[in-house]
Amino acid sequence: MGETIIRDDRAVLSITASEVEQARVFKARVDQVEQAAADSDAAGVLIGLRGGDTVEMPAELSSLIGQILDLVSRGCTVTVASVPNELTTTTASKILGMSRPTLMKLVKEGAIPAHKVRSHTRLLSKDVFAFKERQSAEQRHAFDELRRLEDDLGLVD
After folding, report:
1. Distances from the Cα of 35 to the Cαs of 22, 27, 61, in angstroms?
2. Smallest Cα–Cα separation from 13: which of 80, 83, 82?
3. How confident is the model at residue 108, as a pLDDT?
């Protein structure tokens, strides 16, 4: 089993190669069962307990666990953290990887929605993550365009 390191309010769980392999095998089995049951209306995950009882996992939690399992099975590092619904500009700028003045400029331009709590600017975490996803999508698109241009000009072997 991997080692868990707890520091302040954060925990880091290291994953062993054996656990990655187990995740791969388990995910393949889950995918196989899901494909076989694709025609049924039953959705969700049932957890079998040692006493013989079963408990149904809520759909949102099943989706989260499925995403984590997928990432672990590919050997990825997974960080799970709680984020408050409302963020300070300092926290939002750290999430976005930009300076606070740059964030405030984007707020002023209306690129990221924000609101005031007395004299302080606050952002909803969903708006910050939506902006981050849009920013990533724009970067991927620009990179794809650059690769296409290089191909068209014959600059890459």
Report:
1. 20, 12, 20
2. 80
3. 96
Distances in Å between the Cα of 108 and the Cα atoms of 7, 111, 119, 132, 148 are 37, 8, 15, 17, 35
Strands (E), the chain: 4-7, 10-13, 45-48, 54-57, 86-88, 115-117, 120-124
Query: Residue 58 corresponds to which amino acid?
Result: P
Ranges in the chain, pLDDT < 70:
1-13, 37-44, 157
Instruction: Decide the pairing of beta strands 86-88 and 10-13.
Output: unpaired
Q: Which amino acid is at 152?
A: D
Distance CA 49, CA 23 (A): 20
Instruction: Give the Cα separation of 80 and 32 in Å (integer).
Output: 27
At 62, the amino acid letter reads S
Q: What is the pLDDT of residue 80?
A: 74
Paired residues of 116 in beta bridges: 121
Strand partners, 123: 87
Integer Cα distance of 99 and 93 in angstroms:
6
How far, in Å, CA of 98 to CA of 84, rounded?
Answer: 19
